[in-house]
Amino acid sequence: MELRHIRYFVAAAEELSFRRAAERLHVSQPALSVQVHQLEEELGAILLDRDRHHVALTAAGKVFLEHGRRLLRSADEAARAAVRAARGETGRLAIGFIAQLSYEWLPNVLRSFRRHHADVEINLMQLTPTRQIEELTDRRLDLGIIGLRPPQLHEDLEVAVMSEERLVAALPRDHRLAARRSLALGELAAERFIFTSRQDAPAFSPWLLALCRQAKFEPEIALETDRSPSALNYVAAGFGVAIFPAQIGRLEMPGVRFVPLDKTTGLYQLSAAWRKDNRSPALERLLATARNVVRTVHH
Question: What is the CATH number of the domain that holds 116?
Answer without folding.
Answer: 3.40.190.10
